[in-house]
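Example 475, ligand EPZ.
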Amino acid sequence: MFLCSLCLFVAKWFLCLFVACLTLSGIVDKFRVTGGRELHGRVAISGAKNSALPCMAAALLTPETVTLHNIPYVRDIITQRRLLEDIGATVLTPELRTHKISAAHVELFEAPYELVKTMRASVLALGPLLARFGKAKVSLPGGCAIGTRPIDLHLAGFESFGAEVKLEAGNVVARAPSDGRLRAADIHFNKVTVTGTENLMMAATLARGTTTLSNAACEPEIVDLADLLNKMGARVNGAGTETIQIEGVESLGGAEHTIIPDRIETGTFIVAAALTCGELEIKDCRPDHLTAIIEQLRSVGVVIREVNPTTLEVSCPDGLKAGHVTTAPYPKFPTDMQAQYMVLMTQAQGRSEIVETVFENRFMHASELQRMGAQIHIDGRSAIVDGPSPLNGARVIASDLRASASLVLAGLIAKDETLIDRVYHIDRGYEKIEAKLRAVGADIERVIAPVTATQSSEFNLQVASLQESKLKLEL
Ligand code: EPZ
């Protein structure tokens, strides 16, 4: 009897491992969504990808162990982990969402093209490596679907710290002054940049003197990173405001930190509940990080009740009305919610204008939504949406992370079936979104695409890393 249940358990575990490997490797690349169901129930929010990534990079600032909890299990985290391991750090995962990172034996000061091309946030290794080791080489990230996304402000900041920054064969090669230590500086960003603020804030922690970053980004992820750095012994003040002061110290130590919940995942599920005329309880979130999102959604008819500091209740009993929005850096309405909001406005009474000010090419989802029957007119950085328009299922292609989320949302309300291609985009930043949606009543499933030769070699790589991380597939 014992033997049967053990065999059953092992078989089940390997099946889970096999499905998870296929899922996370980007080999599985379609979602099939059948629309028309209301969502009801409870959904738990995962940790914030955009905080976990810089916090993992911050571990490079010290030889001691940094333990991070509430790490989301998404593709970008696996890429960041591979980057750290390639550099020579060790990343242990005593459990799925806890990473114990030790950069005691870093040998390579380089973020290679192969990784940077899959995830721009790899540039966050530049600041910590340069500050602690006095040198770093990072492939210059190219543009991406949503814009050219230069890192000139990052590089100008490192030069202000006295570093020599050169571009060699597509790589940024940076060297600290001859004594190996960066010099503090007053840096004014002429454009608000999130990872720019994070990169320079991390570098400044080990610089000689006190740095001031002005017109800095104020996102909650910046505050979360600063909290970790201060636990490591840094002296960062003013994170979350436009002016951050960092008094450099000789060295940093280990720390333990829990990553904040993902405010964009929270916003995405609020929209899912409203669109499907359902009722959702969203738990493990931080409503205080979503002020602009909640305000905008309430203004168009979504009922959002703050049950307690980590739980929201969402419904939309009286339908939606049109509402204009302009994206801008925090605390304004985030660009990462623009695509999801556009789908919502396709179902609202009247005409809405959505102005995208952060990225120059972030309306790729609009043409796919038009193919589903949405009335959207794009004029430069402005999208005019007329509603309500009934949507019909179709084959659509995801172009980037948030665009793919908007297509899933559209599929939830479309007539018949929607087949979404390239869902590897969504796996980059949403932890098992189809499982979470199915648990509250959605009809969504992953469709396995035939595996090509190149994909199978990538698959083997993934299996190796997953076996080590002892994956548990829980909802
Ligand atoms: C972060 O990207 C997020 N990524 C993005 O989330 C998010 O959309 C963006 O901030 C804005 O909120 C992570 O945190 C990993 P920026 P980042 O530097 O830091 C220009 C998602 O969906 N700029 O704040 O790369 C830039 O081109 C992703 O999770 C320069 O000109 O964005 C853009 O127009 C997508 N020079 C604007 O500033 C620079 O040196 C804001 O970009 C840096 C930025």
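Summary: The two ends are 28 Å apart (CA to CA).
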